[in-house]
């Protein structure tokens, strides 16, 4: 059954959001961008996504102003994709989804997200209970949890094992 | 291009959640269930969704324990679908998505969600900033916003114009 991506009859901001980010893979591309993945090949390796789908998603996310294309090398020309403020604003959605998946399905912590300043686990509404504030995304420290069992052959997964702040570019060992 | 619904290589609670609720229409069915829609025909009318898709989504959501099927009439037998605690736990995700869609696309308030006790607009993670707590879903009051222009011929849309608490069954005028 062919299904479009629009929800023409729905007067609803949730439906509007899903028209933009509701397609398969889209939110995982945004997730990776928040984790600091920027390069086409790193998205490809980390997501295990078909090339054509990744190219379509990156183009759409760029057109929507959720990612921004930046030239990082001139010869040969190479671009990377950096998450914008509009993309960063999807963090509460991804955090809420992840907490739901953890509690109702995984039952274990795959990744821990802490307030970098004090090491407190971020709460269900993005807050640091110790400091009493909603933690800005750039101050969120991501660490592997006890339930994470990443593929050792995947260089992006390996790179994401090191504690790192969200948005900071991930450093992938070149093989 | 045929795309499955699984993300086999992703060790990630966000990906796990999207395997369950990431397909087209699924989150809008859950949204309606949180708004108090319970009956097959009311979902059908409000969503304008193909019958086969709605039936598949309701069955899947029931199997996943996100909705619960309840007999409300014996002769002829009729069931309704009531959102469970697991489904209610998706509210922060839907709230965050809706705020993102409002801020970055609609630019106007289609529906307002307030803490029923104090009238404060619920924040991006479902919290009340005035009371400093995550508002239980049953204490969220839904009201039409100034940007809402619902189809007057749609009885479910009409019924959802009245201020109501989430989860309370929507009362649709029989035509």
Description:
2 copies of one chain form a homodimer. Chain A is 37% helix and 18% strand. With 175 residues, the first copy, chain A, is of the alpha+beta class. The first copy, chain A, folds into 2 domains: 74 residues, Orthogonal Bundle (Arc Repressor Mutant, subunit A); 76 residues, no CATH class. In chain A, a hairpin with a 4-residue loop joins strand 4 and strand 5. The model of chain A has no long low-confidence stretch (mean pLDDT 93). The interface between A and B is large, with 59 and 59 residues.
A few lines on this structure:
The structure is a homodimer. Chain A has about 180 residues and is an alpha+beta fold.
Number of domains of chain A: 2
Average of per-residue pLDDT values of chain A: 93
* Rg measurement of chain A, Å: 17 Å
Which structural class is indicated by helix and strand composition of chain A?
alpha+beta
The portion of residues assigned to helices of chain A is 25-40%
Oligomeric state of the chains? homodimer
Across the major sheet of chain A, the strand order is: 3-6-7
Q: What's the end-to-end separation of chain A, in Å?
A: 42 Å
Q: Which residues of chain A form runs of ≥5 with pLDDT under 50?
A: none
Number of strands of chain A: 7
Tally of helical runs of chain A: 7
Largest interface: A-B, 59 and 59 residues
The global form of chain A is globular
What percentage of amino acids of chain A are in beta strands? 15-25%
The biggest beta sheet of chain A reads: 3 strands, antiparallel
Series of H and E elements of chain A? HHHHEEHHEEEEHE
């Amino acid at each position: 059954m062919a299904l479009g991506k629009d929800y023409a009859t729905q007067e609803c901001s949730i439906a509007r959001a899903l028209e933009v980010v509701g397609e398969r893979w889209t939110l995982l591309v945004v997730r990776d961008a928040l984790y600091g993945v920027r390069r086409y090949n790193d998205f490809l390796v980390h997501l295990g996504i078909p090339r054509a789908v990744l190219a379509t998603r990156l183009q759409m996310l760029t057109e929507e102003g959720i990612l921004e294309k930046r030239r990082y090398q001139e010869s040969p020309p190479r671009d990377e994709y950096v998450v914008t403020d509009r993309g960063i604003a999807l963090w509460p959605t991804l955090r809420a989804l992840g907490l739901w998946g953890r509690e109702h399905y995984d039952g274990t912590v795959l990744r821990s997200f802490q307030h970098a300043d004090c090491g407190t686990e971020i709460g269900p509404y993005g807050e640091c209970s110790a400091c009493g504030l909603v933690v800005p995304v750039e101050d969120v420290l991501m660490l592997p949890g006890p339930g994470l069992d990443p593929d050792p052959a995947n260089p992006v997964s390996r790179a994401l094992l090191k504690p790192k702040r969200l948005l900071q570019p991930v450093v992938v060992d070149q093989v």
